[in-house]
Design a protein that fits this description.
It is built from 2 helices and no strands. It is mainly alpha-helical and about 70 residues long. The radius of gyration is 18 Å and the shape is elongated.
């Protein structure tokens, strides 16, 4: 799925951002640090990336079918 993502920095940011937020909460004692939040955030981002990749593949197929129909 992820080979369609052209910018690999997006994937790295999706994994690092929740960690940064949770560790900031832990260090500065703001809010509550929970490992469950990390897991849920990362899983949500993975699901979002999969949906975006699947939509991109579907969109590409639609363009191909439409181009064939136009001929």
């Amino acid at each position: 799925f992820f080979k369609n993502i052209k910018n690999k920095k997006i994937i790295v940011a999706c994994f690092l951002l929740p960690f940064a937020v949770e560790f900031t909460q832990l260090i500065f004692n703001i809010g509550v640090f929970e490992v469950a939040d990390l897991i849920n955030n990362v899983l949500g981002e993975i699901i979002g990336l999969v949906v975006v990749c699947l939509w991109g593949q579907h969109r590409d197929r639609l363009k191909t079918v439409k181009a064939k129909d136009d001929l």
